[in-house]
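User: Some background: our group keeps a shared notebook of sequences we're curious about, and every so often someone picks one and asks for a predicted structure to add to the entry. Today it's my turn. The entry only has the sequence so far, pasted here. Could you supply the structure so I can complete it?
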Amino acid sequence: MESKTGKLVISSVPTKRAGEQMLMYLQNLMKKVPMEQIEKKVQTLPVTLANNISEENGRKIASDLIQMGVIACYIDPFAPKPVSEIRISEKEDKKDFFGKSLLMMLKNYRNKTQ
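Assistant: Of course. Here's the predicted structure to add to the notebook entry:
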């Protein structure tokens, strides 16, 4: 079985308590990294904690952080993007291709049936 890697991202830390728990957890994980460096890294959110983390470790750490109240996720680079992330180019957006086409089809259909 192939080993996949992805990103581990923290999007938000909604409460002070969650932030404190997160810092303690991260300090325990990254024993060689000084606490000041960890604090500095997570001051500006969203933050990518790891760019090349195994799927198993990424999902486990994200799950642990979520249980603390932190908004975190493992991002699989090979997973299909959700529809909400698929962007329409500005040109297509201005055309409103589907909306205009659908309206034209409805008008044509009405004209033919009358």
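Suggested note for the entry: Residues 87-113 form one domain. The chain has two domains: 5-75, 87-113.
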